[in-house]
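W.,

You were right to be curious about this one. When I first looked at the sequence I had no strong expectations either way, so I just let the prediction run and decided to look at it fresh. Below is the sequence, 214 residues in total, followed by the output.
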Amino acid sequence: FGSSHAGSRIACHLTSHPVASCNHLARAYLVCTCMAQQLSRVGSRQTGFNGSLTPAQRKALLALKEALLAFALDNIEDGEEQNPDLTQPGDPVRPGTLREEAEEAELLADSRTGLLRLLRTSDFDVRKARDLAVTCCKWRASVKPWSIGPELIPVALPSGMWRFGGHTKAGMPIVLVDVAKWAPADYRYGLDEYIRYVAYFMEGAIGRMGPGVE
């Protein structure tokens, strides 16, 4: 989503509780990546992308940024300190603090590309995009996908269920999922390990986006 944050700190969605179903987690995480990436294939011929905004879309972009900054201000002033960093595979996925959510909102508000993804997903409905953005920030504050390394997914990663498969001609990363290797009973650390496994690959996919891919 623009800057270093683009490839590594904004991705998507939260559920009302971080230990929600894996299917919902994967779907939520993909809303601002895969759906928007599909549109990016013909983005040069559409409005709603960088360099092709209508006046109404520009207005919506500014309104969404303002709404996210307001959310951040409301939370960062009263927010508690950050949760400890992840160090062990068995560390539980827990809700982020208000301060962590506010910091994510500030990062997203500073990403023009990220805001436009949210707006395109919401048909430029600012209220819907704002709600989606807040959900995104809460999920990221909880799961912290940018901090997940192989050492935190020691069983899921070697399974080979998820793999990178190069790029499309449009520069979009390809993620291959072999459902025959889906064996949740083998995950030593339970659902939390799979949540981190999905986040690890989706975060990596965003980081592998080709130049100009929105």
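Here's what jumped out at me. The chain has eight helices and two strands. And, maybe more interesting for your project: The beta strands are 162-167, 173-177.

Coffee later to discuss?

I.
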